[in-house]
Write a structure and sequence with these properties.
This protein is mostly helical and 362 residues long. The protein has one domain (4-317). The protein contains 16 helices and 2 strands. It has a two-stranded antiparallel ribbon with strand order 1-2. Helix 11 (254-262) packs across helix 14 (298-313). The longest helix has 35 residues, at 185-219. The radius of gyration is 20 Å and the shape is globular.
Length: 362
Amino acid sequence: MADLGVFVPIAVALIVSNGLSPTAVLLPAALLYLVVAPVYRLPVAVQPLKAFGAIAIAAGLGADVIAAGALLMGVTFLALGSGDRLDRIARVFPVAVIRGIQLSVGLLFAKIAWGLVAKPQHTFTHQLDQLGVQVAAVALFVVLLVLRRHIILLVVVSAVTVAVVVGGKAMTLGPSPITFPTLSWDSFTTAAVLLVLPQFPLTFANSCLAPADAARKYFGAAGQTVTPARLARTLGAANLVAGALSGMPVCHGAGGMSAHYAFGARTWRAPFLMGLALLVLAVGAGAGLADVLSAFPLSVLAALLAVAGITHILLLRDLRGRRSWAIAITVGVAGVFWNLAIAVVVGLLMAVLLRPKDPESV
């Protein structure tokens, strides 16, 4: 459950601010985790579409527009994942650019973690005062960084217990109502312009190319099953389900894989248990889940995110030469503080322009 730092804030905001059903929010992620377990046999992550979710929350978009966007993402990535086109692209994509994408995600995790404690979202209730959240987050970060897998379960179980006790005093059991979307031409055009276009390059880079690379780095030969084309197909299918249920659009974030790996996940059992837990929550407690999720301790979310970000940044350790480091750092910094799609284009141009005459000097 190490990847909750990204999952919970976006899920809570979509439920509280955008009016999505808690059951519909959790169900696509639960089903995708349960698919990931037998398909990849590795802890491939399931995360919300971050840019998509952030724009939907900031613009106050309704469930119908969010559903239309999820359906468009689903169709797009199912089409991209057909055949082996994405796998061929990945084989010629410069490693330094992929490392830059991974650096960008690691820095983004750190940025989100800081935002959680520096400017807590109003959707989170029953929290410590701001100073208390910051002190607790720093203390937990140090503890998790040192002990990691030895204490992660205790930390997460304690945080869930606090959220249930504080936020679930009058908790209603059973699923929350699911409303199927009412789709129109306007909802699709709005979703395409506001949600899909900004999200597409991020999903292509960070949910197809980067996770496949990270899987090979973390798991060796076993990671060969995690290919860009397969990732596109599974996330595409999941978003068709999310769109049909007016739920939360999802992806396979490379940072999520680092989060799971950092805290000890090594096999299919991690995604299977996570999917099972989300399924039980969606069906068994969806009706009262909004109050519980909003009471989840922000200090825990921030600490989990920060440690996962550092683990993801450490993927850069295999870079050699000033050229590779210059490309990776440019892509990483520009991606997190400006725009990842433009950063990737800049990185590709740098890879061509700075190509050494002597390959051994890379």
